[in-house]
Design brief:
Number of strands of chain B: 21
CATH architecture of the domain at 52-303 in chain B: 2-Layer Sandwich
Oligomer: heterodimer
Number of helices of chain A: 5
Number of helices of chain B: 14
Distance between the termini of chain A: 17 Å
CATH topology of the domain at 52-303 in chain B: Beta-Lactamase
Distance between the termini of chain B: 66 Å
CATH superfamily of chain A: Response regulator
Largest interface: A-B, 24 and 23 residues
Strand order of the largest sheet of chain A: 2-1-3-4-6-5
Structural class of chain B: alpha+beta
Largest sheet of chain B: 6 strands, antiparallel
Largest sheet of chain A: 6 strands, mixed
CATH class of chain A: Alpha Beta
CATH architecture of chain A: 3-Layer(aba) Sandwich
Radius of gyration of chain A: 13 Å
Chain lengths: 126, 632
């Protein structure tokens, strides 16, 4: 079974590095890091990930805009996205079962087990 | 007394006085007029009396003119006497006869009788016997026979009649002789004419020489010239005017006090009856020793033709003026009544308006009071709103700040969290390391919770108020904590009153409140308990004692309220902590489980709803949380 390809997009380099470490440590994931929101689409085209962990509040381009552009891209529209953001709280995501306005959300800070659970859940939906 | 009666009274008075005054002035004028007429009448009578007296005097004068023939001792013959007498009689138709009556002593009787038989063949001195027949006079010392008579015709019986034969007559004659003045007799009836009228005799004594003493008079006396006068004729001759005067007159001889002798009746030629109420008596001057009077009465027409119309005119003018005045007063009083009525109506209208004004004033005052109250209320609300706004602004800033902080803190927290996760999996572990990693993990959780509640706390400031029912919100909140209820084995008892009044709430924020309260209760009860949730409505004044409210706050006693009570069967609040429960960061939970902001946020949200929250221990144990909303 091939590894699940995850593109992690966040302007916080330490966070992306920590995510990559944790996910790859499990052995089930292959992680590529993108620290510039505006490069997300390019990286996604190059890397062709199964799922993108997308930050929302980024300096150059906000996550929701990235998601919108991806929806409009024939090549990228089917890639799963989980918003990993500090904008929502754990209580909110728990109360809504992680789905807000049809999208999957994970509140920062996130426990790695919960994250993997969410990713598997998201990919299992397809 | 009303106006109508008053005016009727006045009019009656005016009519009475007016008619009385008119009558009196008319009557007074009438009387004055009548007095003037009576004066005229008297004057007329006076004139007539004077005229009559003059006529009598003129007649008596004839005797003096005849006496001239007998002066100086002359004795005229019968023819001589007759000539003179006839002249007089021709001029005076009111003299019936003129006679010569000599004084004859008994010794001369025969000579006298013989002498006169030349003219009267059977002449002798005669006298009237008791049966009335004329007989030869008895012998006396002196005789006063009727010797000459003119006219003879009609007087034949008198010729030779001795006047001394009648003692009464003789007295008169002797008195005349003594006084040397003519004397008139009382009236006699003259029957010899076709008309019956009264007459009288006047004797004029004739003396020789110029006697001056009574004795000389007696001695020198020769005889009388006698005149027989017709009173009626004299009266007729004394008429002054061809026109009838309209006066009835009675001529009387009043010489004898006891026996008034009516000499002549004069009925006015007008033939109109007399006015018996007016009588005027006029005494004539002495007529040869007789006292005559004229008693006159005017005829009705005498008065009436002289009456002036003035009294009548005055009377009727007065009446007319009175009537005009009465009508004018009636008109005026009616006008007054109308004006008074108008005044009354206007006054009434005015007082109505006044009343309305007073009423309006009262209403205005009440309205003013209400407005004042409202204003105070609004001011209070405004102040509250301002306070809230100020608070909100402050909190908004805090909110923004905390959101920023949250974002900035959460990323490092995420890094730490993931780092811990990595260590947990990859690090060679012993008990100490496990403990440290677990502590670090807890610390991250706690930091995350604090940030989250800080954001909630600041975000609680802005409410989206809508009119909602309370009960459904409770249901939703319970659903969200259902997992916890099951986990902690908590039994829920619901006593929700149906059809509660709507309240203005932010549904999500209120859910947060209920979840907080419920979670507190669940955590307090631990592994077993009962949750009692009750809602009801009522008036605040009925609830204030029950809830032991220290003040009504922004409520009013008459406000309708909606109450929710959440009771648990947990251990209750430690009495020392009761005053601290709403303080930020106060918590009784273990580290990492509670942040101490839950009830602070709850209280904030409740307060923003203008609601009231009270948390206290139940007597039977456990805690009761009461939240009171103002019903809309």
């Amino acid at each position: 079974m091939s590894k699940i390809k995850i593109l992690v997009v966040d302007d916080e380099e330490s966070l992306t590095r920590m995510l990559k470490l944790n996910l790859e440590e499990t052995g089930g994931f292959e992680v590529k890091i993108e620290n510039q929101g505006s490069n997300t689409l390019t990286s996604a085209r190059d890397y062709k990930p199964d799922l993108i962990l997308l930050d929302i509040m980024m300096p150059d381009m906000i996550g929701s805009e990235v998601a919108e552009k991806m929806l409009g891209d024939e090549e990228l529209k089917d890639i799963k996205i989980i918003f990993l953001t500090a904008l929502v709280s754990k209580q909110e995501t728990e109360a809504t079962d992680g789905r807000i306005a049809g999208r999957s959300f994970i509140a920062k800070p996130v426990n790695i087990d919960e994250l993997i659970e969410s990713i598997e859940k998201e990919l299992g939906n397809t | 007394m009303n106006l109508k009666h008053k005016s009727v009274l006045i009019i009656s008075l005016v009519l009475f006085v007016g008619i009385l005054a008119s009558g009196l002035s008319g009557w007074s004028l009438y009387r004055t007029d009548e007095k003037a007429i009576i004066n005229d009448f008297r004057k007329d009578v006076d004139e007539r009396a004077a005229s009559f007296y003059r006529e009598v005097t003129i007649n008596l004068e004839t005797l003096y003119s005849l006496s001239v023939m007998f002066s100086e001792g002359n004795l005229p013959s019968l023819p001589q006497f007759s000539v003179e007498a006839k002249k007089i009689l021709n001029r005076h138709d009111d003299i019936k006869a003129l006679e010569w009556i000599p004084r004859v002593s008994h010794s001369d009787r025969l000579a006298y009788e013989k002498e006169n038989r030349h003219y009267f063949p059977n002449f002798q001195f005669t006298e009237r016997e008791s049966q009335g027949h004329m007989v030869k006079a008895k012998d006396r010392s002196e005789y006063y026979p009727v010797y000459y008579v003119e006219p003879v015709k009609g007087n034949e019986a008198a010729i030779g009649f001795d006047l001394a034969s009648n003692s009464v007559r003789r007295e008169t004659l002797e008195k005349s002789i003594r006084n040397a003045r003519p004397l008139a007799t009382a009236s006699i009836k003259l029957v010899q004419e076709n008309e019956t009228q009264k007459g009288f005799l006047v004797f004029l004594p004739i003396y020789k020489g110029n006697p001056s003493t009574v004795a000389e008079y007696h001695l020198n006396f020769r005889g009388f010239i006698l005149g027989v006068f017709r009173i009626g004729d004299i009266f007729r001759n004394s008429v002054l005017s061809e026109h009838p005067m309209g006066i009835n007159m009675i001529l009387r001889d009043e010489t004898s006090d006891s026996d008034y002798d009516t000499l002549n009746f004069h009925i006015s030629r007008t033939g109109i009856p007399a006015n018996e109420s007016i009588v005027y008596k006029k005494y004539l001057p002495d007529i040869s020793g007789r006292k005559w009077s004229i008693t006159a009465k005017p005829t009705i027409s005498y008065i009436s033709v002289r009456r002036s119309r003035l009294p009548v005119v005055v009377f009727f003018t007065g009446i007319i003026l009175t009537l005009i005045m009465s009508l004018y007063i009636r008109f005026i009083s009616r006008q007054t009544a109308i004006i008074k009525q108008n005044v009354v109506e206007r006054t009434q209208r005015l007082s109505e308006v006044n009343l309305k004004l007073v009423k309006t004033q009262k209403e205005l005052k009440i309205e003013q009071e209400r407005t004042k109250e409202l204003l105070e209320m609004r001011t209070e609300e405004l102040r509250e709103t301002q306070l809230q706004l100020f608070q909100a602004e402050k909190m908004d800033t805090i909110g923004k700040l905390s959101a920023g902080i949250a974002h900035e803190v959460k990323n490092p927290l995420a890094v730490i969290q993931l780092g811990i996760n990595y260590f947990q999996k990859s690090l060679h572990k012993d008990e100490d390391i496990d403990g440290i990693i677990q502590d670090m993990d807890n610390a991250v959780h706690r930091a995350d919770s604090v940030i989250k509640e800080l954001v909630d706390f600041s975000a609680s400031r802005q409410l989206k108020l809508e009119k909602q029912e309370l009960n459904p919100v409770i249901g939703e909140s319970l659903l969200l904590v259902n997992h916890e209820l099951t986990k902690h084995n908590i039994n829920v008892e619901m006593r929700l009153e149906e059809n509660l009044p709507f309240i203005e709430i932010d549904r999500n924020k209120l859910q947060q409140v209920f979840i907080n309260v419920l979670m507190n209760a669940i955590n307090a009860m631990g592994s077993k308990g009962t949750l009692l949730i009750r809602t009801y409505t009522g008036e605040l004044k009925n609830e204030i004692k029950k809830h032991n409210l220290s003040s009504t706050g922004q409520f009013r006693l008459t406000n309708n309220i909606v109450v929710i009570e959440i009771e648990d069967t947990g251990p209750g609040i430690n009495p020392e902590d009761e005053n601290k429960i709403f303080e930020p960061f106060f918590t009784t939970k273990k580290a990492g489980v509670g942040t101490g902001l839950g009830l602070t946020v709850t209280e904030n949200i409740v307060r923003l709803h203008n609601a009231y929250i009270d948390i206290k221990n139940r007597k039977e144990g456990g805690v009761i949380v009461t939240i009171i909303f103002k019903a809309t």
